[in-house]
Amino acid sequence: xxxxxxxxxxxxxxxxxxxxxxxxxxxxxxxxxxxxxxxxxxxxxxxxxxxxxxxxxxxxxxxxxxxxxxxxxxxxxxxxxxxxxxxxxxxxxxxxxxxxxxxxxxxxxxxxxxxxxxxxxxxxxxxxxxxxxxxxxxxxxxxxxxxxxxxxxxxxxxxxxxxxxxxxxxxxxxxxxxxxxxxxxxxxxxxxxxxxxxxxxxxxxxxxxxxxxxxxxxxxxxxxxxxxxxxxxxxxxxxxxxxxxxxxxxxxxxxxxxxxxxxxxxxxxxxxxxxxxxxxxxxxxxxxxxx
Length: 291
What we know:
The chain has helices at 20-25, 50-75, 115-135, 183-192, 209-234, and strands at 86-97, 101-112, 143-157, 161-177, 197-204, 238-249, 253-255, 278-290. By secondary structure, it is α+β, with helices and mostly antiparallel strands. It folds into three domains: 1-43, no CATH class; 86-96 and 210-250 and 284-290, 2-Layer Sandwich (Translation Initiation Factor IF3), CATH 3.30.110.170; 100-205 and 255-273, Alpha-Beta Plaits, CATH 3.30.70.2970. Strand 3 (143-157) and strand 4 form a beta hairpin. 19% of the residues are buried. The model is unreliable at 26-41 and 257-267 (pLDDT under 50).
């Protein structure tokens, strides 16, 4: 087939000789040397595509890896899992320190025939109580309202049943005392200001972080010493640490207090409070690999 000649379909040739309708249907019957301007027709096989080659290489690598993993898994069938030889040791550390803060709850109960009168009297007493605390150096941030309640008081008669006879208001403050030498003075002053409820005193340490770290260090050393001795007795060598846990102790020490009597007070005989000491304790469990 040559340029400007008719195609087998009797259509006029394109500029290069072969029309589009004959290119796919009669390619084998045409003269490949002269078609399309005399050049050869180049046929690209889809399997020679670069994308196909990449996918093929990937599939081969995947299959090899899959086979290798299956062989390794098959080889371990019936075998026990490898176990790590280890020992676990408990250690204890304790630091004794003096508390530097006392926390107490101071409040009052006001009873009146109607709510408004009870609120007025309660407010006056509470203002006097807060003023007495501040006068002793208690900062605003160390005084916090913890509870405020209003509830009715009832009387019962067989014919009338239950009848409201008045109202009670209960309000309490959580007070943090940083100067422990003023504990007795604070309680006496609160009683003089009208407080008639004290739930107790707890002694604690404001920033125990460093003390807890010191107790932990002692506990870890205790565990290490025990592990060294045990390893020597067993004839083994300690390896790396593969497990660790800790629990801490040293809760605030409560000092129980009785509520102030309705006709008595703390002003006449302020209680003597002893702070004592606190134990900050750390308990650790350390697991060592042994060889």
